[in-house]
Design a protein that fits this description.
499 residues, Aldehyde Dehydrogenase, Chain A, domain 1, Aldehyde Dehydrogenase, Chain A, domain 2, six-stranded mixed β-sheet, globular
Length: 499
């Protein structure tokens, strides 16, 4: 069994707390490694080293920091297959999906290659008699990133790339269920030229998280996970005077209008609902057809598509549609929620509860399930299932469908399928959800925009990546300057090389 490590000051470091947790192969249910869980003392030592390294890194000019990102991006591309293999081995998602995980993180790195343009301040000439005003963006210092299991590459990259480009040092605490990808990314960053100590990867559980939240040298915390933990981290970080951006759970709805292309809508729902076994915060888990005819037509198309899905380990080839869920507990919870849907009166059209794969009977597999005639009072509607379960809630009118989406406590993503531009515009303008898709099922913005939900899906006032990330990871200083009349020297006639 492999014993994993932390990554501190540019080197692998064994844990000293004596506490470990198992890392599973979700496809087989076997323990494939153990990862150390950091103590408060280990956190303190990593933060102290990061604080020391950050001073010199912050003094490095933005272009040089951007060049590290350029090299880092090239190394990610060169090692794409190795990174995807790590993601698949510990998470269980298919290799094409794992490559997508890495790719969407790489796109944020690519934006950070142009970081100097986003770090520019503002200038006002002659704001008063002989007075100029200018603002500058400066790094915060040491920041923390706490990332989830479901995107072992993408979300760490969403956190580390902007934070480091802005001149901060980062303590990254990846999910203890999928720790290896973050370690490899740290190795690649060192190869790209990042100084030792500027990125520390510390594995841990709640003890490590609380130590980061309470540490006086941690200036900001970025988190992605469930809503209860997001709310807890946001509250504790804010109480300690830290900046925090904490992203939580979701219950994403897709409205299907009677004029929509039903085949395209069904294809979109299958991909968005069952990809990565539904373990995505942007997964569509609720289909809302408008009108009985629309609902019947959609079910007719969904059933054969869902029944044809191929479930298996990532080693079975690229034609596998999705793999196992992350843990035995997740498997049991999902199956329990499906049971509750049946007990509470929903119509189980496709039943994935008893799925078993020959040779992988101990794996954490869950077959795809489809419910019809779900109502908002049912547990399968109220809870974020985070599994391969799609619920259909029938709406009589467009206004009913819109109200259903808007009344939901979550506000991460939503979508509408329609051929009518007026309906689409109305939906985009009125819906109280942070990311909206029009004939597009998973509306994750491109990396030069910004990602973030509303309501109980997000805590904090700035989003992930894009311009918001550069605002979050810097503080603005404004200078008012007046220079009195003095001796003016002559000019220089040659360009000075950049230091």
């Amino acid at each position: 069994m492999e014993e994993l490590s932390h990554y501190v000051n540019g080197a692998h470091v064994k844990g000293t707390s004596g506490r470990f947790t198992d890392v599973y192969n979700p496809a087989t249910g076997e323990v494939q490694g153990k990862v150390p869980l950091a103590s408060v003392e280990e956190i303190d030592a990593a933060v102290a080293a990061a604080a020391e390294a950050q001073v010199k890194w912050a003094a490095t000019n933005p272009q040089k920091r951007a060049r590290v990102m350029m090299k880092f991006g090239a190394l990610i591309n060169e090692n794409m297959d190795k990174l995807a293999e790590l993601v698949s081995r510990e998470h269980g998602k298919t290799l094409p999906d794992a490559r997508g995980d890495v790719q969407r993180g790489l796109e944020v790195v690519e934006v950070c290659m142009g970081g100097p343009s986003l770090l520019k301040g503002e200038f006002t000439n002659d704001g008063g008699p002989g007075i100029d005003l200018y603002s500058m963006r400066q790094p915060l210092g040491v920041v923390a990133g706490i990332t989830p299991f479901n995107f072992p590459a993408m979300i760490p990259l969403w956190k580390m790339a902007p934070a480091l480009t802005c001149g901060n040092a980062m303590i990254l605490k990846p999910s203890e269920r999928c720790p290896s990808t973050a370690i490899m990314l740290a190795e690649l960053l060192k190869e790209a030229g990042l100084p030792d100590g500027v990125l520390q990867v510390i594995n841990g559980d709640k003890e490590a998280v609380d130590a980061l939240l309470d540490h006086e040298d941690i200036q900001a915390v970025g988190f992605v996970g469930s809503t209860p933990i997001a709310q807890y981290i946001y509250g504790r970080a804010a109480a300690n005077g830290k900046r925090a951006q904490c992203f939580g759970g979701a219950k994403n709805h897709m409205i299907i209008m009677p004029d929509a292309d039903m085949d395209k809508a069904a294809d979109a729902l299958v991909g968005a609902g069952f990809g990565a076994a539904g373990e995505r915060c942007m997964a569509i888990s609720v289909a809302v057809p408008v009108g009985e005819k629309t609902a019947d037509a959609l079910i007719e198309r969904l059933v054969p598509r869902i029944e044809a899905l191929k479930v298996g380990p990532y080693t079975a080839g690229d034609d596998v549609d999705f793999g196992p869920v992350i843990t035995k507990a997740s498997q049991e919870r999902i199956n329990g929620l499906v049971e509750s849907g049946v007990d509470q009166g929903a119509e189980l059209v496709v039943d994935g509860r008893n799925f078993s794969l020959q040779g992988y009977e101990n794996g954490f597999f869950v077959g795809p399930s489809l419910f019809d005639r779900v109502t908002p009072e049912m547990d399968i509607y109220k809870e974020e299932i985070f599994g391969p379960v799609l619920s259909q809630v029938r709406a009589e009118t467009y206004e009913d469908a819109l109200k259903l989406t808007m009344d939901n406590p979550y506000g991460n993503g939503t979508a509408i399928y329609t051929a009518d531009g007026d309906t689409a515009r109305d939906f985009a303008n009125r819906v109280n959800v942070g990311m909206v898709g029009i004939n597009f099922p998973i509306p994750v913005p491109l990396s030069y925009h910004t990602f973030g939900g509303w309501k109980k899906s997000a805590f904090g006032d700035l989003n992930q990546y894009g311009p918001d990330a550069f605002r979050f990871y810097t503080k603005t200083k404004t200078v008012t300057a007046r220079w009195f009349s003095g001796i003016k020297e002559g000019g220089e006639f040659a360009f000075k090389a950049m230091d």
